[in-house]
């Protein structure tokens, strides 16, 4: 392992994994509050209650830390979307349940999207993590694309429905609606954007196709 290479999590003991996860959680909170540029090692050492040598062992530089925070945030979102509460995201009803969950979540207009907020910070830096960030969004978008593809392949959506394009629409509606709701401190923009996006997808439903 070189001086600027983070230790592979697969090589860590359970205690080491717990320490790494604790540092990541504190780092994500600091970055959300202070931004990437406004977060430094001293702040993180105090917040996570670790030594400089511990921090350097897991994250030898800011790039390795931010990369790990991106993965951590993305995994949180994917876990939420795959825990069964929205089925397999392969029905209009499931998409409406997904939209309703975020519309009803008060933190939506207070906190914004955790991954989207992180993206807004990263684009201001010269850290070489943009590909990592794009990969996180792609993994998220692919959940919708796969569900929409199953709907089309099973005949519940018309053959001219484009799963990739419709997945992009859902993501854009979510990110844009979330940002506007955060600015206005009101969930209405998010509700309107997500409702319109799912309504548009429903226009591709085949005649007689049930919403589920």
Characterization of the model:
This protein has 212 residues and is mostly helical. It has helices spanning 14-34, 41-48, 52-58, 62-81, 92-104, 107-111, 114-122, 130-153, 163-184, 188-202. The termini are far apart.
Features:
single chain; 212 residues; mainly alpha; 0% strand; elongated
Would you kindly provide a brief summary of this structure?
This protein has about 210 residues and is mainly alpha-helical. The chain has helices at about 15-35, 40-50, 50-60, 60-80, 90-105, 105-110, 115-120, 130-155, 165-185, 190-200.
Globular, elongated, flat, extended or rod-shaped: what is the shape? elongated
The count of DSSP E runs of length 2 or more, i.e. the number of strands, is 0
Number of helices: 10
The unreliable regions are none
What distance separates the N and C termini? Answer: 51 Å
Which series of helices and strands comes N to C? HHHHHHHHHH
From the helix content, strand content and strand pairing, which structural class follows?
Answer: mainly alpha
Q: Indicate the proportion of strand residues.
A: under 5%
Spatial extent as radius of gyration: 20 Å
Q: Estimate the mean pLDDT confidence.
A: 89
Give the biggest beta sheet. none
**Percent helix among the residues?**
55-70%
């Amino acid at each position: 392992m070189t001086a600027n290479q983070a230790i592979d999590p697969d090589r860590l003991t359970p205690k080491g994994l717990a320490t790494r996860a604790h540092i990541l959680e504190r780092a994500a909170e600091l970055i959300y509050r202070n931004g990437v540029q406004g977060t430094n090692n001293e702040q993180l050492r105090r917040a996570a209650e670790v030594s400089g040598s511990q921090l350097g062992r897991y994250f030898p530089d800011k790039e390795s830390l931010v990369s790990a925070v991106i993965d951590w945030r993305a995994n949180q979102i994917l876990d939420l979307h795959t825990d069964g509460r929205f089925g397999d995201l392969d029905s209009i009803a499931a998409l409406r349940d997904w939209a309703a969950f975020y519309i009803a979540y008060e933190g939506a207009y207070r906190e914004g999207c955790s991954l989207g907020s992180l993206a807004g910070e990263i684009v201001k830096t010269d850290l070489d993590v943009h590909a990592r960030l794009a990969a996180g969004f792609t993994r998220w978008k692919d959940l919708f694309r796969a569900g929409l593809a199953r709907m089309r392949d099973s005949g519940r959506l018309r053959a001219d429905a484009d799963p990739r394009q419709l997945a992009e629409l859902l993501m854009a509606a979510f990110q844009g609606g979330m940002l506007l709701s955060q600015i206005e401190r009101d969930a209405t923009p998010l509700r309107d954007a997500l409702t319109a996006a799912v309504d548009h997808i429903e226009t591709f439903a085949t005649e007689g196709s049930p919403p589920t």
